[in-house]
Amino acid sequence: MKTFRHGIHPGDYKDLTRHIAIERMPFTDELVIPLSQHLGAPSRLLVKEGDKVYRGQIIGEPAGFVSIGQHAPVTGTVKAIEMRHHPSGKLVESVIISRDPYSPQTFYNEHAMEWESLTPGELISLIQHGGFVGLGGAAFPTHVKLSVPEGKKAKFLIINGVECEPYLTSDHRVMLEQFDDVFYGIRILEKVLGCERFYIGIENNKDDAIALLNKRIPADMNGEVVALQTKYPQGAEKMLIEAVLKREVPSGKLPIDVEVVVQNVGTIAGIGMMFRFGQPLIERVVTITGPGIEKPSNLLIPIGTKLADVLDYCGGLKENTRQVLFGGPMMGAPQVYMDVPIMKGTSGILCLTDEEVTIREEYPCIRCLRCVDACPVYLNPSRLGALAKTRDYEGMLGYHVMDCVECGSCSYVCPSNIPLVQRFRVAKALLREKQAKQRKAS
Amino acid sequence: MLILTSLAALGGLTLILAAMLILANKKLHVEEDPRIDIVEDMLPHANCGACGFPGCRPFAEALVSGNALPGKCTVSSEDGRVQIAQFLGVDVGAEEKIVARLACAGGTNVARNRARYQGLQTCQAASLVSGGGKGCFWGCLGLGDCEVSCDFDAITMNPFSLPVVNEDKCTACGDCVEACPKDLFSLQAASHRLWVACKNLDAGDEILEECQVACTACARCAMDAPGNLITMKNNLPVVDYSQNHATQVPIQRCPTGAIVWIDEKKGVIKGEQSKKIIRKGERPIASS
Asked: Which end of chain A, C or N, has fewer beta carbons within 10 A?
């Protein structure tokens, strides 16, 4: 069975929510929509305090190429525009919308979009204004990846249905329940990219999804479902390309340089939905799971719903819950404030208890090189870790620290419990800051 | 025989290369002022950069060429500076003493944590994990990156995990300014004794829930200060240090003690009406 080289095998813990159908979460009274839910420039505000907004109405427009539109997830009034806590730990300008309790909350402009006559450029603009980002977690604007630079060609489209993070099942449920939208979305992307063939990469711990999508591929479409061996971090773009096509993306290059575009399956389903019903990205499927939550579920949540409301809806936290993460256990971000909103890039909410959250003492590196065997991008985490400890960040550049995908495999396998990936994240943040400063100076 | 040929070959090669080196040394010799070496030896070799030059050697070059005065070196002792000045026959040059100041007073006894951070114990790492868990978004994380970064042992962490700058040892090299992920340190003239020890940009008393010494933007200091010495900007008082600021009047009515007087001898002095903090232990984690 196909896979990439290196990587690790954490337990998958997906049984908690694997078989639970997607359920729509009721609208809450107050929603917070940060203007920066994506990588790139924050959206430009289009509404003001006191404005009435309709479900699906655009409230923020793209402020530049690497920026997207934002939409009101409910019908209601703009209560305030202020700085609010953001899941990343920053304070971000957000639109606070209070729900109109008497509105039926139907989508205000439901219609199928006529897209066959549009040019790829127009389709890309529609996707940008529809507010689409990669729903896998990184929240990179979708239209940027779809805009193939001059002189390059996207031969293959890979749909990322890998979901390699333990615990999470949102993409799995999307594939099982919204496969029509997925295939509709693929049609649109094929038109945008003009690609020859598509692949849907799915790990073999989701055999029901593999079987179902295999059966449902429309006869007129040129593509296949690729079953992959379950391994972490297969969901990382470059690993997935290696697994499916045996092509390696060179250091510092993008997938388009090997004629590939990768999109998350949730994103594709969202795009399919937009062109079928005209609904932009205003809700997403989120897995609420972990031993610390009373009722694990897969919920369709309006973007901007507060974390505390979601936890309440799932029966609340158990007594011994210690940590709440946005995302999975490997790369997820622990949350400090319970009033942060669910964002476009939030794939799961993981609640861990005392048993899972253990702090282990750090010991010296014993040069076992398990981290080297695990690193999916062929770095030397052992050496990098030693450099990071002495704060030799410039030296780390020579060991290609910027290629690190921060998957955490090195920390996971380290028998000395060295916080390797944490150190690399600090180094990368500092180096990026320095580069930005130098760019500004020159 | 074999040994002899190899000896001759290597010996010959050595001689030729040595001759080339001698020639190169003579031909390509750079005339350098011998005083630079001597002055560099007189400098403290800290290479801290506080003088504004990349290190002690470039500073020595600048001194000899007359582009700088010895007073710029804040690490040397007074005697050391005078010695260099006498050697070069220039003025010592009076430089105002500059120190690093921390714009936060939220130690663990007054400021609350919203979550307990247990990862890699550096501020930089903590700030990447949802901001580090401190209730106040702007506040000091207290893990001591500045203490580690300081080459002169001028920064020590007090019992409440708040860095304290020893003004005598501080050379204003700026390492702590760079190390702090919350940008709480800045280089200030030591005479700037009227100091706002808070960076909270929210107005109102809600912040007191998170930190008891935060600035609530009540603007009493701005009202009490003579003339327009203090103005409110982004909900924080800003002292105009170009005016005469040697007055303790503005701190007296501060309800929380966010604006303080940093005395040369007595340390931090709070206003008369400022709330006294008597808690010696850590504030419990807030449940939200």
From this structure: C
Chain A positions touching B203 (Cβ under 8 A) are none
Residue after which a domain boundary falls, among A249, A277, A305:
A277
> What residues in chain B have their Cβ under 8 A from chain A's Cβ atoms?
114-115, 118-120, 122, 124-125, 127-133, 137, 288
A107: in domain: no
Q: What are phi and psi of A201, to 5 degrees?
A: -90, 120
Q: Which of A85, A335, A429 sits opposite B128 (nearest CB)?
A: A429
Unique residue bearing structure tokens 């180096």 = A431
CA distance B245 to B80: 32
All structural domains of chain B: 35-88 (1.10.15.40), 97-190 (3.30.70.20), 195-278 (no CATH)
A7 belongs to a structural domain: no
Chain B within 8 Å of A395 (Cβ-Cβ)? no
Residues of B in contact with A87 (CB under 8 A): 130
Phi, psi for A343 (deg, rounded to 5): -110, 180
Contact flag B137-A91 (C-beta cutoff 8 Å): yes
B-chain residues near A389 (CB < 8 A)? none
Q: Are residues A259 and A379 in the same domain?
A: no
Nearest chain B Cα distance for residue A188, angstroms: 37
Question: To the nearest whole angstrom, how far is the Cα of A418 from the nearest Cα of chain B?
Answer: 9
Looking at A277, A310, A334, the residue that finishes a domain is A277
- pTM flag (> 0.80): yes
Q: Are B105 and B251 a contacting pair, CB within 8 Å?
A: no
CA distance A352 to chain B (A): 14
Residue A172 neighbours by CB under 8 Å, 6+ apart? A14, A18, A161, A163, A206, A209
What CATH number is given to the structural domain containing A268?
A: 3.40.50.11540
Q: Are strands A283-289 and A348-353 parallel, antiparallel or unpaired?
A: parallel
Measure Cα distances from A214 to A208, A211, A342 in Å. 10, 5, 32
Token couple for B131: 């901001």
Is ipTM over 0.90? no
Tell me whether residues B125 and A426 touch, CB distance under 8 A: yes
Per residue of chain A (442 residues), what is the pLDDT tens digit? Answer: 899 999 999 998 999 999 999 999 999 999 999 999 998 899 999 999 999 999 999 999 999 999 999 999 999 999 999 999 999 888 899 999 999 999 888 877 777 888 888 899 999 999 999 999 999 878 899 999 999 988 888 999 999 999 999 999 999 999 999 999 999 999 999 999 988 899 999 999 999 999 999 999 998 889 999 999 999 999 999 999 999 999 999 988 999 999 999 999 999 999 999 999 889 999 999 999 999 999 999 999 999 999 999 999 999 999 999 899 999 999 999 998 889 999 999 999 999 998 888 888 899 999 999 999 999 999 999 999 999 988 889 999 999 999 999 999 999 999 999 999 999 999 999 999 889 889 888 8
CB-count burial class (<10 Å; 0-12, 13-18, 19+) for A51:
middle
Any B CB within 8 A of A337 CB: yes
Given an 8 Å threshold on Cβ–Cβ distance, is B131 in contact with A339?
Answer: no
